[in-house]
Amino acid sequence: MNDQQRSLLLDISSRFSPPKGVKLSYGTSGYREDAALLESTVYRVGILAALRSLKTRAVIGLMITASHNKISDNGVKVADPSGGMLTQDWEPFADSLANTPDSHSLVQLIDAFVKRENIPLDGEQDAKVFLGRDTRPSGFSLLEAAKQGVASIVSAIATDMGVVTTPQLHWMVRARNKGLEASENNYYNQLSSSFRCLLELTPQGSRPSGTNNKLIVDGADGVGGEKLENLKGMLSGLHIEVRNSGDGLLNEGVGADYVQKEKIVPRGFGPAEVGVRCASLDGDADRLVYFLVQPNSNKIELVDGDKIMALFALFIQEQLSILNKSEDGTVNRPHQTRLGIVQTAYANGASTDYLKQLGLQVAFTPTGVKHLHEKAAEYDIGIYFEANGHGTILFSETYLCALEDTNNDLLSSSKGSEKQKAASRLLSVSKLINQAVGDALSGLLLVEAILQHMGWSIHRWNELYHDLPSRQLKVKVADRSAVVTTNAETVAVKPSGIQEAINAEIAKYPQGRSFIRPSGTEDVVRVYAEASTQEGADGLANSVAKLVDNFLGSSSS
Ligand code: G16
């Protein structure tokens, strides 16, 4: 680092002091905190994003959002050149950067890291960072901090993409790095045109149509509702009504996290929606769940991320089996294509059994799309979903090239054949689904296209398998980092003795299963339990929550 670079960094960073007594760590989804504590962190993540851009010689994304958290929180995360999450190799540097106490130690830290990583700071190339934010009021001042962070690195350029969904920003980063136009319009065009292609390929008359084309969407009073309003005008064959698109309080009694965890009707929905297909987005529109309002009750029937995954898996498997059918039409070889499924410990046991019955390979990772995405990228086609509705489908570049070639061959030899249509459908899915990260808007259009393809109602879809009753709780403790887990979060290795105590509780319940993990986005320990009855799942979750409390002690706050 030369003198000019050093004095620029010292000068700007001296205006952003980290909050005293707060230790930040780059969690499941970047940094999340009370927004008032985040200015210096966002500033420093701006620096990190610029350095990452220089290192990779590509555009990097910086998104200011706290997704499903309450409105007073905010957060920041980084998108790598592929549009996926920041490489985990850089997370320790992110943590040191966020927690270093003053400007002098900050400069030393950056200097050492730049040397170690061979980051070209000679000014010959520009760093390029796309900035995005959700609708939180604190986003505007945090955006300024991010701009200052980028500006602290000589020859770094920040481009403000405005208020966008998290997946839109990830998509734009990926698009730009592939040499495509990284605009919101291009995003809408790609989604709407691939959706249209899929609808055009819907089998005619061969299947009973139980699909009603009306869908009501809860926008969580976040950015997703507004964006869906823009997108829906470009769609035909689907009637979408958006509720909670920004007039009410963000994530308060609305949104995918609330609907999935509480299983209660979100604000703005009621008896008039009984029997209607409904969906819910989260605050930054990277999660999607479907639901049905129950008659005479405030309860919903949840159709969660696991069921979305089951629908996607079934559809992809069907297309592969058509495409890979041998010439004499007798032998199905669907396993010519490596199709893999990735879940977390939150996946309902019934969903895993169902996927295995389909003959699919199911792998497990810890919570957080950064883990699932990495695993899914090992397959030709990898489908990953968290039960909370965060997930997508990845197609490897090699597989996509082969698929394009196959489709071109079929177009010249047997255009309109079943095989050619199957190839076209898979190509359309690869364009519709956001391959950078889970995206509620693209996921929603794929669900809708598949329901029309199958001729299914939401009821028929929901009947694919029956969830085991489950319950999720959160426990506020003095220090959540005291919980350390292993084995894709299914075993707690710390505090010592807690896993044995949990096992003893599990043994009391038929089909009992339970685990604990520290949240990466809220200051709580999460408890998950499932059992053969709802009473059992509730009882197990409550006893495990008590154990957490006994072993870790309640927080005073
Ligand atoms: C983020 C991640 C998700 C993850 C969730 C877990 O969601 O993107 O992959 O499932 O955190 O949160 P926790 O660690 O608190 O259980 P989001 O939608 O809040 O960005």
UniProtKB/TrEMBL annotation:
Pathway: Nucleotide-sugar biosynthesis; UDP-N-acetyl-alpha-D-glucosamine biosynthesis; N-acetyl-alpha-D-glucosamine 1-phosphate from alpha-D-glucosamine 6-phosphate (route I): step 2/2. Its cofactor is Mg(2+). Its EC number is 5.4.2.3. Residues 474-546 form the Alpha-D-phosphohexomutase C-terminal domain. Gene3D superfamilies: Alpha-D-Glucose-1,6-Bisphosphate, subunit A, domain 3, Alpha-D-phosphohexomutase, C-terminal domain. The keyword Magnesium applies. Keywords: Isomerase, Magnesium, Metal-binding, Phosphoprotein. This is Phosphoacetylglucosamine mutase. It comes from Cinchona calisaya.
